[in-house]
Write a structure and sequence with these properties.
Four copies of one chain form a homotetramer. Chain A has about 400 residues and is of the alpha/beta class. In chain A, about 30% of the residues lie in helices and about 25% in strands. In chain A, helix 1 crosses helix 9, helix 4 packs parallel to helix 5 and helix 8 crosses helix 10. The longest helix of chain A has 18 residues. Strand 15 of chain A pairs antiparallel with strand 15 of chain C. Chains A, B, C, D: Keywords: Oxidoreductase.
Amino acid sequence: MVGYSFMGAAHSQGWRTAGRVFDLPRTPYMAALCGRDSVAVRQAASRLGWAATETDWRKLITRDDVSLVDICTPGNSHAEIAIAALEAGKHVLCEKPLANTVEEAEAMVAAAEAARARGQLAMVGFNYRRVPALALARQMVAEGRIGTLRHLRVTYLQDWLVDPEFPLAWRLRKEAAGSGALGDLGAHIVDLGQHLAGELLAGVSAQIATFVTERPLPEDPTARGAVTVDDAAVFTGRFASGALASFEASRMAAGRKNSLRIELNGDRGSLAFDLERLNELQFHDQTEPAAHSGFRRILVTEEQHPYLSAWWPPGHGLGYEHTFVHQASDLVRAIAEERQPQPSFADGLQVQRVLAAVEESAHSDCVYTPLVHEPTQSSQSTEPTAAAG
Amino acid sequence: MVGYSFMGAAHSQGWRTAGRVFDLPRTPYMAALCGRDSVAVRQAASRLGWAATETDWRKLITRDDVSLVDICTPGNSHAEIAIAALEAGKHVLCEKPLANTVEEAEAMVAAAEAARARGQLAMVGFNYRRVPALALARQMVAEGRIGTLRHLRVTYLQDWLVDPEFPLAWRLRKEAAGSGALGDLGAHIVDLGQHLAGELLAGVSAQIATFVTERPLPEDPTARGAVTVDDAAVFTGRFASGALASFEASRMAAGRKNSLRIELNGDRGSLAFDLERLNELQFHDQTEPAAHSGFRRILVTEEQHPYLSAWWPPGHGLGYEHTFVHQASDLVRAIAEERQPQPSFADGLQVQRVLAAVEESAHSDCVYTPLVHEPTQSSQSTEPTAAAG
Amino acid sequence: MVGYSFMGAAHSQGWRTAGRVFDLPRTPYMAALCGRDSVAVRQAASRLGWAATETDWRKLITRDDVSLVDICTPGNSHAEIAIAALEAGKHVLCEKPLANTVEEAEAMVAAAEAARARGQLAMVGFNYRRVPALALARQMVAEGRIGTLRHLRVTYLQDWLVDPEFPLAWRLRKEAAGSGALGDLGAHIVDLGQHLAGELLAGVSAQIATFVTERPLPEDPTARGAVTVDDAAVFTGRFASGALASFEASRMAAGRKNSLRIELNGDRGSLAFDLERLNELQFHDQTEPAAHSGFRRILVTEEQHPYLSAWWPPGHGLGYEHTFVHQASDLVRAIAEERQPQPSFADGLQVQRVLAAVEESAHSDCVYTPLVHEPTQSSQSTEPTAAAG
Amino acid sequence: MVGYSFMGAAHSQGWRTAGRVFDLPRTPYMAALCGRDSVAVRQAASRLGWAATETDWRKLITRDDVSLVDICTPGNSHAEIAIAALEAGKHVLCEKPLANTVEEAEAMVAAAEAARARGQLAMVGFNYRRVPALALARQMVAEGRIGTLRHLRVTYLQDWLVDPEFPLAWRLRKEAAGSGALGDLGAHIVDLGQHLAGELLAGVSAQIATFVTERPLPEDPTARGAVTVDDAAVFTGRFASGALASFEASRMAAGRKNSLRIELNGDRGSLAFDLERLNELQFHDQTEPAAHSGFRRILVTEEQHPYLSAWWPPGHGLGYEHTFVHQASDLVRAIAEERQPQPSFADGLQVQRVLAAVEESAHSDCVYTPLVHEPTQSSQSTEPTAAAG
């Protein structure tokens, strides 16, 4: 694994736990952790449970005891590491967003396709697909429980930038982060929205805003520097089927800590979800008699639910990092079965293209910006492993 | 009053009850009800409590025992009746939307301004401003409790058109209704959003859709006719202050019966409301210590809350039609005090202009469509009477 | 009507509105209001819409234009007025609790039975049975939707006595009020619990408490007097069927304004309700597949729901005082059809006996105190009028 | 560790993870797992991450590489193993309930006190104290945020016995399980209720019931055997301070999966919690102005909250098994610091006494059954380690 901060810790928890909970065809071995600071990386490896350390990712990807490289670094290094790792004959798991630009993402997809011919597999880490309630929602959509989609609305709201004295971290500088709330939160909701809908966006119209344009420098709090990424993005979209979509990503929504809310309305029913209550899925069945119908709160903790048979009895809820356990488990199985894991790099590229269209529309008076989809491998299918224990 | 269906019944409940609950300077007398069918209007008058009937609104507006004309007819007759009533020296209450076109609405504003010089007052019936929880929200915004606005998001979702066999009622024909969900539901949320924000939209970008394009004819269910209005509208907006707004109005959101949800995020706090739980207001105070803060559910039934001192003890909630009691009460007071009641016809016109811009943008590839505001009477002030018992 | 404070105002709203909303076989005429203070009663009559006034209830009950006497006075005068009114040949509606003692209630039942033979009808005002969501709950229990009852739990929590400086009002003196939270709130939940369960309690075990034992005198806030009623009562019960019940009534539950919560668990499903969200009923169907089941929130505003066809479109909620409109409407119909209205005085007496057993148990170390039920008229049937428009 | 089913898996997750997340003074080493079936225990050890196995707990407790024995067996073996392990010089963690009888629990407390003099520490596993929201609730009560307690109400509802065809598992036989819902769920809520209140119950009055008295035998589903434990228990209690308490434990509450709900009402505020939404704590501050007050939902995921600084960013919720990570972490620290960990065996004994009094009352017509508390070590103090990262 490369990188060991927030995402690195979460992925480590996933690798460490997957084989303890799920019956896996292969047992993950946490071979080596890589980071530039040799002291810090050794401390992190000891804490997180990695057997060895490296300070140069180029050495990591050539180790004989490494068959899979998990990339948890900032987005601007994803392409280089992933392409090199694939070329070195390793499987790759890459954190989202796949890259900071469409061009990088395209190169990564090309590398992944070439690698696949050699037996190497690549996956992008949109972990929220593996929240059991959202995996269940995907199943229910696929089964026709909501019928023909009319509306999708998704918001992903946080509030850690409300305070204007929050410093100008690297995430607020375009050269490092690519974009702001859009790339960080927007990438999640574009992927999730399309995944749950089971179809891709045909075009978008967008507005973006930066509300606090200068912030204290981390290195010198008495000085201020320019914020060069967005604080928030609001956009609408249209699916090829004609369904309407609305999206909002913000780091400035006071009181909303991690509020990824998604709702789908179809002509046979509706589904609703809030990440702040991640063990619950709301479902309305429009085919029931009006007198007794209403949104029901499914507590997604039954053994019939995706991933749940491996965990605890009904009502004993899971948390955020379980998504990384599920991700690790699903990836190990896909590798053992020589199947393409979902979501693929191509899925990650498609999300990147939507984000690029959002920025283009926002800089062009919100004009509707169509998306062209290449006829690639369909990746919107539900994975067969989702419900296995 | 002209008209006696859904809105007529609701307004009658308002007129009948206002003086029984609030201490009013004048006692409303329900002089006459007007409708074209003489038998039906007599039955309605008897049921709803009106002393006399008319079958021609031109006669109604000249009656000596009528000092106020309440217009509850479809939108395409608003302008003619309202202008004539004002010219006949009557005060006027006109249901929303003010008119079906900007031109009609402009003529109505001109008539209202002329009438005002003669002492006649005109008001448009955006009744949701008088839900106590929303009146409280307006107070709190005005007091600075949420600080500088960053985000407004409002949805108004219903589901009565999900069934494709629902007939082609007049509300689904452009010539009668003007527009669909946009004019009916969108008018409410544009007014409310701006009213709560305390500022006007600078421009919008929009998509509209008609999902079911043909429906059975009411007069002959074996035949089908074209739906000529929208089923849903999704639009984003921007305030002059830079705050972002998103709006969605739909009659196709399965399971959402009357779900007008509104949320405002500012740099000092947030407010959230759902019309399906109209006695509650959610408030987050961003200035509190993080360890103990969170959205609180204010049960808006205390005597300190707007309108509540006239009603029941704490926790004994109000319903939908109470908004019409409050509207009647506020209007009677404004007339007695010779004050301009809120919202004015000018407010109604401004909403109409936003709706027109939404349609224009939707027909122009979602391009951002700016709004020009004339320097008229400010009408975004909170009314002094809101909290009185 | 006798009495014109909180309950008098609520009942007046009911009488004034019932015929305006429901198709009634007879039109209520609000003949006369009675109160001891002639000036105050005249003001109240004018405000609330009564045609005449009386200062002596003995004169009221002999008026020729009065056929029904509605008693809204404190509990210690109910028996005398109700018995005299029935003997004077009037129908009677009496607010709950039926009386302050079992003995008075027994005398009232005897008078009601004698009067019924002469064609006069008597009803006690447990208005919460007529919240549409609770009427729906009763229907669903009767239809077997929850199967065999296992658990009933009901709490009725308010907080207006949390402040120790709240004065020693008459409601806190035993000689006037009979009891405290028990008679006021407990009467409601005992009636509702048994009504929804469709069976009567076989016995109870109880604790009661007075947390603030002295309060300022209203007439002299510098002096204090003893609180002689309970602040709270907690009791368990058992139905003849073996189902377990728990009850709690309190005026000392900080933050709970009017929180009447009720839940029934059966072997086929469960129902849950909260008066602070009175337009909603929660229902869980245990017979559904586990993967998709959960408590659903039925928004009880559809025309198929009890009382709703007379009101507004779906999602346009009702409020507290609508229960009094429904009560007036149901009573007028029962009188016109010469049927016994529900709940009867016998139902009121049975509730009184439960409350007496609660006090007896609380004063006897919580010992289980059985209830003996006389073989009287069954009153647990659902009224046929409940769903009519 | 002895035992490796549900609780064994949960404790293993705790031991495996604690040192990966928290900075601990000592690193847990998972030395050996013990179970009677040598094949099964070896499989479990491999899966759960234990280095060795034993088939006789008497051998386990004498191993040199074992310094702490974690007991996850059924309740009837707790006393024997715990006492022997303490006498063998090991620290002990024992799952709840401490024992099946008061006598066994008393012997365990005596053994723990003797062991403590030698430096061995003993703890009982009431893991819910370590849900961050409940640890925060305890802090807030201790800080006086709710003032003087008036009411405690706790329910713990499950529904896995609603189906009458659920087999007669060992948990439904008194000889093995001691009691039913009372010992399993009731133990948790008695401990939690007293822990949060910060005081002990003075007495209880109780009803218990077994609704389904015969069930299919696991070994022969065509035959039926008698259920010899309770399905549900409902009881009320009183604290020495005069505060009232109500408790309900049931395995027959259709639709309630793991619904441990707790509410405390004091004269300065209230707290409410539901285990099905374990990242949330509801708080009402009675000292705030009525116009803006209400129950607030604190999302207990901020770094200021107990245990949270070691986990994820705000809004990224935890799950059920995190309580075992916290339990392991707190115990390791207590051992390193030679402090008595909380809750102690004496706390477990006191809970056992309450459960015994509940059964006694239920068998004696619900009569109030007082509890005598011995002057032992206070164990209601908040642990200093709760908030550490």
